[in-house]
Amino acid sequence: MSQPLRKRRGAGRVRLHDVAALAGVSHMTVSRYFNSRDMVGPDLQERIAAAIEKTGYVRNVFAGSLASARGKSIGMVIPHIAGGVYAETVQGVTDTLRSNGYQLLLATSDYSAEEEEAAVRAFLGWSPAAIILTSQRHTRKTGELLASAGVPIVHAWSNKPKANQIAVGFSNVNVGRDCVQYLHGRGYRRIVFVHPTHQHDVGADRRAQGYTAMMEELGLTPLEYRPTVKSPLDAGTIAFESLTRGRHPADAIIFANDNLAAGALLHAIHQRIPIPETCAIMGFGDLSISDKLVPSLTTVRPPRYEIGRIAALRILQALGEAGSGTPADELEQLNDLPYEIVEREST
User: Fold this and answer.
1) What does the CA dihedral 53, 57, 59, 65 come to, rounded to 10 degrees?
2) What number does CATH give the domain 70-170+304-338?
C-alpha cells in the first residue's frame, strides 16, 4: 500500500526515498528501476513511473561517491547554436565563470518548451550550481522543477525577473517600438513586421507587440506577415516578394531576425531591385554577415555578450563567490541592458 508523501525540510528537492514511499516500494526497488529495469515487474514499473511524474523527481547521477562533484557545473539552454546570436552570450558566460572554476553544460531546445524541459531534467541530474535559460516560454513542469531545484536560476534575454529568480536582458517590446520610430523618422509609412520561421520565438512576438503599439500611436496601420517555409533565407525572399507587390506595397519591412532580412536583400541584389529606394529593410541581431551585404543591413544590435557576462556575475553573486568585480547592488540593477539600432545602407 502506498504511503503519503511527506514534505521534507530543506531545499524541497525530492529524493529517491520520497518516490519509493509514494510508490509503496523499497528504495532499492526504485534504484533497480533506474539501473536494471528488466528486473522490476511491469506493475511496479508503472507505480514507480507514476510516482516519479507526480513528485517531479530528478535522478542525481552524482549520488554516492561522486556527490562531492556538485557545484562546479552550470547548465544553460539556448534555442540554437547556428547563427551566432546566442553564441556570444554563451561566450560571455564561459569567459566570466572560467576564473572561478565552473564549466558550462550546454543544450539546445529549437524553441521547444518540451525540449527545454527535457534539458532541465537532465541538468538537474548532474546537480548543477545554477541554471541559465534563454527561453521566455516554459512548460508547467519546467516551472515546478526550477522552483524546487534549490540553485540560482537566471533567465537570460529577458528583463522581467520571475519570483526568486534572476533576469538579465532587455525589452523586446521597446525594440519593436524603437524600430518603428526609427523608420518613421526616415519618412517610411507602410511598415510591415515579418515574423520568424519558428512559431514559439517569444522575443520576436514581443517585438511585434511593440511594433503594433507604436504603429497605432503614430496613426499607421500595422501589418504582420508570417512565413510558411522553414528556411529563413527562403522565407525572407518570399516575404519580400509578397510585400512589395500590389497596389499598396510596403515601403519598409522589419524582419524578426537578420537571416530573414538577408534572404530579402540577397533576392533584391539578384533581381537588381534598388534598396532602400524600392523598400527599406531592417533586421535584428547584427550577425557577422549584416555589414558585409551590399547594401549593408540596418539592424538592431542586442547586448549579446554582455547578457552572458552579467548573467554569470549574478550567478557568482548568488553563490557567494568572490571576484565578481561589481558591487552586489549595482549587479541587481543590470537586468535591463541597452541595445543599439545600427544604421546602414538598407534604410
Assistant:
1) -150
2) 3.40.50.2300
